[in-house]
Amino acid sequence: MTEFSVAHETFVIERTYDAPAAQVFRAWADPTRKARWFAGSADALGAGYELDFRVGGHEVNRGGPPDGPIYTYDSEFRDIIPDARIVSTYEMFADGTRISVSLATVEFHDEGGTTRLVLTEQGAFLDGHDTAAQREEGTRSFLVSLGAFLDGETS
Amino acid sequence: MLERLTSGPASVSELAEPLAMSLAAVVQHVQVLESCGLVRTEKVGRTRMCRIERAAMTAAEHWIADRHREWEARLDRLGDILIEETATEEGP
């Protein structure tokens, strides 16, 4: 028997970068720059990562642990205001199974040379798909985050 | 730190002991873990006890915590790239 369920979740992340909004926006719009921080490496471009930055264009990122499922992120841009706002919707798949559908909004607030970035994600999580591999992946990305946090602290 | 907490609750100073980090830095990391929903802390007398929260999480909470952490990691990397670019443009 298949059980269907949906859970709605929202989170907001704010960051302030010591760079003008145009420069921060460029890092979201330019495929080579975005591959570096979004997919983790410029080499990912054309090897699992694609970016077609225009309204109606898609961004795709594929990957996963060696023995686990292939996770696919497939995003479509819905609204773009240069240097100010990006709205996209995206789906996550584990192999062929749709795990979630989300709305992601990024706002760039130029505050006199620095930029306050506000990322809001609103998601519908489908059918409680959760695997050990997914948790492992989550922990791994968390550790990357912690590493970056530590680097920031020591530099 | 998370590995230590999987074997049971610990105080902040117990967490700091095996690490080459200041107590203040450990406190900061615990706060990050707490904001990610991975760790719960509780003041017991004069010590702050930390325990892992993960077992209590539902699949949906796992998902949201994973998305959240993924974005945190990405936005950290974005910050690194911006710093690098600024340094390059200003030149030595």
Structural account:
The complex is a heterodimer of chains A (155) and B (92). Chain A is built from three helices and seven strands; from the N terminus they run E-H-H-E-E-E-E-E-E-H. Chain A has helices at residues 21-29, 31-39, 132-154; strands at 6-17, 49-51, 58-63, 71-81, 85-94, 97-111, 114-126. The radius of gyration of chain A is 16 Å and the shape is globular. Chain B has a three-stranded antiparallel beta sheet with strand order 1-3-2. The A-B interface holds A 7, 9, 11, 13, 15, 17-19, 23-24, 27, 33, 36-38, 40, 99-100, 102, 117, 119, 121, 123, 125, 128-130, 134-135, 137-139, 141-142, 144-146, 148-149, 151-153 and B 2, 25, 28-29, 32, 36, 38, 54, 58-83, 85-86.
Show the helix and strand layout.
The complex is a heterodimer of chains A (155) and B (92).
Chain A: E1 6-17, H1 21-29, H2 31-39, E2 49-51, E3 58-63, E4 71-81, E5 85-94, E6 97-111, E7 114-126, H3 132-154
Antiparallel strand pairs in A: 1-7, 2-3, 3-4, 4-5, 5-6, 6-7
Chain B: H1 2-6, E1 10-11, H2 12-16, H3 23-35, E2 39-44, E3 47-52, H4 59-90
Antiparallel strand pairs in B: 1-3, 2-3
Brief summary:
The complex is a heterodimer of chains A (155) and B (92). Chain A has 155 residues and is of the alpha+beta class.
- Summing up helix and strand content along with how strands pair, one would put the structural category of chain B as alpha+beta
The share of residues in extended strands of chain B comes to 15-25%
Largest interface: A-B, 42 and 36 residues
Q: From the helix content, strand content and strand pairing of chain A, which structural class follows?
A: alpha+beta
- Which of globular, elongated, flat, extended, rod-shaped describes the shape of chain B? flat
- How do the helices and strands follow one another from N- to C-terminus of chain B? HEHHEEH
